[in-house]
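can u do me a favor
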């Protein structure tokens, strides 16, 4: 007679649930998106912090000052790119807001 060697039954491991189920992912994304929107809204509504030592030149209104009123670039060959930077400063005590694109003028041959 031959003996049948019986195999030991293997233990089945129970599936361990993940710490963060996939069902909760949309909820987490919605929460994070909402939090980002709230932070952005608060940042936009908050008044701009100004320098405490700032003394306005104009009271009761915004006033824009440009550091260069006139720029002479000399003779420039055609199709050569040039760059000029301007610094704009609000020296009034109210917020400055543009409702239209600022007007600029290029004068040639002066």
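np, heres the sequence
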């Amino acid at each position: 007679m031959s003996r049948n060697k019986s195999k030991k039954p293997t233990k089945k491991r129970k599936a361990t649930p993940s710490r963060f189920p996939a069902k909760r992912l949309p909820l987490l994304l919605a929460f994070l998106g909402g939090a980002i929107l709230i932070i952005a809204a608060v940042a936009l509504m908050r008044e701009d912090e100004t320098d405490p030592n700032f003394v306005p030149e104009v009271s009761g209104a915004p006033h824009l000052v440009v550091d260069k009123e006139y720029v002479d670039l000399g003779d420039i060959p055609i199709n050569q790119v040039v760059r000029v930077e301007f610094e704009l400063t609000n020296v009034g005590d109210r917020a400055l807001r543009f409702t239209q694109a600022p007007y600029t003028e290029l004068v040639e041959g002066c």
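The first strand starts at residue 64 and ends at 66. hope that helps!!
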